[in-house]
Structure formats: C-alpha cells, structure tokens
Amino acid sequence: MMNPIYTQFLSIVSFFMLQAKSDPLIGTWKSKETKPKTIYFTEKDGFLQGKIVMNDNDSSAGGEIKQLIFNPKLKAYEGEMSPPGEDKSLKIKIMIVQKNELKLILEKFYLSKTIYFTRVQ
C-alpha cells in the first residue's frame, strides 16, 4: 500500500505538469486601454512566462513576466514583471475573469495598477 502523503504529492505534481501543457493563459492577449498593450504568454522549463509589448511597431518596448505559478488558494497566477532596462521588479498577479478575459495586477509596495486583457483570436 502506498503512503498517502506520497500519493498526494504525485497527484499535485501531475496536476501542475498537465496544467503547464494545456494552460488557458498561453497565447496572445491585448489590453482594453486607449493605448493597447499586448502580452504573449508561453511555457518554458515548467513555468509560464510572458513578454509585454507596448507598441505593435516596437516589440522591444515593454517588459518581461517571469516564473508565473498558479496559486490555487487565490485562483491566480503569481510572479514578477521586469520593466525594460531596469533592475527592479514588480509583483504581478493574473486572474482569468472569463474564458477570454484576464485581469493583471501590478504591485510595488502599497501601489497597484490593474489592467484588463482580452484574448486575441
């Protein structure tokens, strides 16, 4: 008979492996702002990551989202966002609001900014 803790560990690992391969976040998303931003989410080394593009004509402008991990208690992805050319990072939280809509929250100390994105088909 298998140890219950070992069985639970295996099911958690399997859950995260399946989630990374078929994650609903992977793809292209565009913000609903007047100057829209685009995020491209991909999976690398078991983590989700993203690239923010501020302007479709200049893909270098924006920032990088690193090591996103799903937090089941918050029903949100958590990670860090690095603005281009800066050594600082911001905490980032991403929640899927509906099938094709997500809410991104950037936090630094007591300040935060919320941006809504829709999936690009």
Fill in the keyword field for this structure:
121 residues, mainly beta, globular, 8 strands, eight-stranded antiparallel β-barrel, 1 helix, Lipocalin
Structure description:
The protein has 121 residues and is mainly beta. The protein has one domain: Beta Barrel (Lipocalin), CATH 2.40.128.520. Helix content is 15%, strand content 56%. The chain contains one helix and eight strands; from the N terminus they run αββββββββ. It has one helix at 4-21, and strands at residues 27-31, 38-44, 47-55, 58-71, 76-82, 90-98, 101-108, 111-119. A hairpin with a 2-residue loop joins β7 (101-108) and β8 (111-119). The termini are far apart. Residues 17-21 have low confidence and may be disordered.
Topology summary:
Elements: H1 4-21, E1 27-31, E2 38-44, E3 47-55, E4 58-71, E5 76-82, E6 90-98, E7 101-108, E8 111-119
